[in-house]
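FORM 7B - TANDEM STRUCTURE REPORT

SECTION 1: FIRST PROTEIN
SEQUENCE AND C-ALPHA CELLS:
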Amino acid sequence: MNTKVRVLLTGASGTVGYEILKQLHHLRDKYEITVFDIYNSKIRKKFSKFSEDINIVYGDIAKNEDIAKACHDKDFVIHIAAIIPPLADEEPDLAHNVNTVGTENLVRNLEKYSPHAFFVYSSSISVYGDRLKDPHIYVNDPILPSLGDEYAKTKIAAEEIITGSKLEWSIFRLTAIMGGHKISKLMFHMPLPTSMEICTPADTARAFVHAISHKEKVSGKVFNLGGGENCRCTYHEFLARSFKIFGLGEVDFPEKSFAEQNFHCGYYADGDDLENLLKFRRDCLEAYFKKEAAKVSGIQRTATMCLKGFIKKRLVKQSEPLTAFHKGHAEMLERFFVKQPVR
C-alpha cells in the first residue's frame, strides 16, 4: 500500500520551483512527486537527473486539457508556475493566460479530480504596490498594485480564484527572491531608497516543503514570506555590494536613471509569523553576499573591472526612466517620477 503523500509541483524549472523539487526529491521516501511544466529541451535536460524518481507531465497550464492530466489523485499542490517580470509586463496577455487563467484551470481540475488536495500558492509582495513612504508591510494592508505592474494584477486575480475555491488553501506572498538573479531593465524600475528584504530560493523552497507536514497551521491563511530582519537593506546598499562583488565599481549612473516611485518591496513587519510556524530560514544577507562572491573568480572580477565603463553604458541604455526623462514621455514620466511642485 502506497502511504506516500502525493505532491504536485507546478513551475519546477524556475528558480524557486527547482529548489522545491530538489528538496522534495531528497525526501522522496515520503513524497510521490509529480511536476508539471512547459516542454522544451532545456527543461527536459534539467529534469533528467530526477526522471527515474518523479512523474513528469509536460504541457501548457493555460490549456485546460493539459493541466487536467496532472490533477488526478493529489494530496498536496504547490503552485509556483508563473510568467514573471519583465516578460509579464511586456506581454500582459501572456501573463494573464498563464498566471490567472492557468491558476483557474488548475484549481477547477483539482476540485474535480482531487477535491481533498491542499493548495499552496506562491503570490508576491508586488500586490502591496509602492511602499517607499511606509515600508513596514502587514498581510492585512491594502492591495494597491503599482501603476503599470501587470504581474501584480495577475497575482491578485489568482489569489481571488484560490480563496473563492472549494479547496483547502494557503497563500505565501514572496518577498524579493535573490539567487540566480539576472540583470534586466527592471533594475532601473526600483527607486534606490527602497527598503527591501530578500529571501534565498533555498529558504523560500523550505517554507513550501515544510508546509506539507504542517498544513493545519497555515490552512485558510495568507502569509508574508521573507528572510527576516537579517535579510534587510536598502536597494542602493544591495546594488552597491553586488557591484563591488562583480567588479562594477560604484552605482554611478546618470541622474534619473532610476525610477522615483511606482515599484514595490519593503520590510515584512509580520514575516516572523510564517517562520514561527514552519522554521524555514537558514540564510541571511551576509550569507547571500558570501555565496555570490564565491561564484565570481578573480579573473572574472578583473575582466569586469576593466570593462565596467562599457558594461554600464550598455546597462543604462535599458533604463526606461532615463529614456522617458530625455524624451519627455508624459505617461512614463507620471509612472516613474514624483511630480515636482510648481514654485
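SECTION 2: SECOND PROTEIN
SEQUENCE AND C-ALPHA CELLS:
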Amino acid sequence: MIRGLILFIKVGLIVAAAVYLSKYPGQVSIDWQGWRIDMSLALLALTVLVVTVVVVVVLRAWFGAVHAPGKFMTARRGARRDRGYHALTQGLAAVAAGDAAEAKKLARKADGLLKDPPLTRLLAAQAAQLDGDDQAAERYFEAMLEDKDTAILALRGLMMRALDAGDSAEARRLAEQAHRERPGAAWAADHLIEAMRADGDFDGALAVLTTAARHKAYPAASVKKRRADLILGKARALQRQESFAKALSLTQEAKKLDPANPNAVTMAARLLYRDGKPGKAARVIEDAWRVSPDPALASAYRDVAPDRTDLLAQVKRFERLLAFNPDHEESHLALAEAALDANLWGEARTHIGKVMAETGEDQAAPRVCRLMARLEEQEHGDVEKARVWLMRASENAA
C-alpha cells in the first residue's frame, strides 16, 4: 500500500515536470573548453535522467558482480545448515522411536553438515546408548562436558549410565556436581534428595530441597509437601531411636506444612496418645477429617481411643467423627466398619448402603464389596453371598 502510494507520487511529479517544461521549454547553453552546446531545457532534463538511470544500472550490476560469490557462499552455508538441523531433528525423532541404526546415520550426517560438535554429540551419545554401545556413549558424554552449554546434559547422561550399571556412588557424585552447576535442575535435586533419604541424611536432603526451591526447580505449591515429607521421615527415624519428644515436634511441624497429609496426622496422633494425651490425639484426627477424610485417619482414630476394647464406645466415637464430614463416603465407611466390629448389623448395612447408593452395587468400590462380604458372613453366615461380593471386589479392582 505504502509502496504503491510512493510510486504514484513519483509518477505524478514526473508528469507535472513534463507538462511544465512543455509549456515553458526555455533554452540552455553550455560553453566549455571551446565547445558550445545549445539545447532546450526539456532535452537537458531528459539527458540527465537517462545518464542517471544508466549510472545506477551500471553501479548495481558492478556491485552485484562483486558481491555475488559472497552471497552464493552465504546461501550455500544457510542451505547446508538447514539440512544439518533437519538431520538433527530427524535423528532425535529416530532415538525417540528406538531406531538405533537410523539415529546413528543421521548423527553422522548432522555432524558433517553442521560442523558443530556440541549440537551433535548428544544425538550421537543417545544413538550409541540405543545401540548398546555404552563405551561410545560415555566418550560422547565426556566430550560434552568440555562445553558449558552441553555439560549439564552430559552429567545427566553419565548419571543415568551409572544407575544402569548399579554404581549408586558415581550416580550420586554426578548428581551432586550437576546440582552445584545447575541448582534449578529438578532431576539432579530429585536424585540427591532420594539418595540422602535412603542414607538417613534428612538434613542434607532438606538443604538440597531449599536450594532447588530457591532456584525454581519445583512449583511453589509442591515445595511445602516435599518439605513436610522429609521432616516426617526424620521424625520416623527419631521415633525408632525412641526420641519421642523430638519426633512429635517434627511431626507437628510437618502437619503445619501439609495439614491434609494423613501420615503426618496419624503419626502426630499416635505420639500424642503415647504421651498420655488421647483427647488431643483425637482432636488432631478430627481436625484433619474435616478437611480430607482418609482410611488411615480412621485406623488411627480407633487406635487412640481411651479404651480400644469397648466396641460400642468406638461406634459412638465414629458417629462423632461422621458429624465432622457427614457427606463424605469415608465417614460412612469408617462408621460401618466400627458397627461391624460391634456386631451392629443394621447400622453397618445402613451406612454401606448410603455409599453404594451413589455408584450402584455393580460399580461398588472393592473396599465396599469386601465390607458387604464381611456383613453377609457375620450377620447371616451366608458364605455364598460373601463369596459373590468378594468376586465382585476382585472384578471392580481390575
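SECTION 3: OBSERVATIONS ON SECOND PROTEIN
Residues 330-398 form one domain.
Residues 61 and 340 are 100 Å apart (CA to CA).

SECTION 4: SIGNATURE
Preparer initials: ____
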